[in-house]
Design a protein that fits this description.
- By secondary structure, this protein is α+β, with helices and mostly antiparallel strands.
- About 50% of the residues lie in helices and about 20% in strands.
- It contains five helices and five strands; from the N terminus they run αβββββαααα.
- Strands 3-4-5 form a three-stranded antiparallel β-sheet.
- The termini are far apart.
């Protein structure tokens, strides 16, 4: 014959693997504990008639809608799948530990779930009914916060491959050096063409530089004209100032 008082005396004065002692309170780590405290009324081991609320099946489900957009994409909705269960233990099932707890799935609606708790625990102690409702409220608030967080967009943290970044930096520096070398070679060839080094060795390979030489000549002429115009303007301004001073 099981005696709840004997079990509690052993747990309270002896060893319990679920007991956690702190400076202020003593807590219980048993998942069936309705209050999370280690005391006589809240202990799930020392009470043959006990009830609590558990949350199980918490996960994420992806539902792909059948609405297609212009580019052939489809929408994916993510939902949090969690259900609250009312777990009840009676002394009639104490001899079968596999079926010791009778679980009843509660409704998704908070008001309907409270009504279910009142109906199923109508002849139970007021302490267990009150604590079960408090636990149901906490679990419902947890479900609401989880669904709210799922609707928010968060930045995804991605690690940067260090070796790949170093390899790309080396390739970029080599390409930059090669580009500078090609530019310097082209400039040197243009200087030699201007100086007449290749007058006696005309070939088809050097014809492509004629356009470049002509463009550089035009650019030099434009620069010389702009300098001459600027010089004339400054000279005219100086003459105007001298004439104004004399008058």
């Amino acid at each position: 014959m099981q005696s709840d008082e004997v079990v509690w005396q052993i747990i309270n004065h002896g060893h319990c693997s679920y007991k956690v002692k702190t400076n202020g309170e003593t807590f219980c780590r048993n998942k069936y504990s309705v209050a999370g405290l280690c005391n006589r009324s809240s202990c799930p081991l020392a009470n043959s008639r006990y009830a609590t609320i558990l949350e199980e099946g918490g996960g994420f489900a992806k539902i792909i809608s059948s609405v297609f957009y212009d580019f052939g994409t489809f929408s994916v909705d993510i939902f949090f799948t969690g259900t609250a269960y009312l777990c009840m233990k009676t002394v009639e099932r104490a001899h079968k530990p596999a079926t010791l707890w009778h679980r009843v799935a509660l409704d998704k609606n908070y008001t309907m779930a409270l009504k279910q708790v009142d109906d199923l625990l109508s002849h139970w102690s007021r302490f267990l009914v009150h604590k079960s409702k408090q636990r149901l409220t906490k679990i419902t608030q947890f479900f609401m916060r989880t669904r709210k967080l799922l609707r928010e967009k968060r930045p995804k943290i991605v690690t940067l491959p260090a070796r790949q970044l170093q390899r790309e930096a080396r390739r970029e520096s080599k390409a930059h050096v090669a580009a500078q070398l090609e530019t310097s070679i082209e400039k040197e060839l243009l200087v030699r063409l201007k100086s007449g080094t290749y007058d006696n060795f005309q070939s088809d390979n050097l014809k492509k530089y004629k356009g470049v030489m002509e463009s550089t000549k035009e650019l030099n002429e434009l620069q010389a004209q702009s300098k001459l115009t600027k010089h004339r303007r400054m000279h005219m301004e100086m003459e105007y100032e001298d004439g104004s001073e004399v008058s």
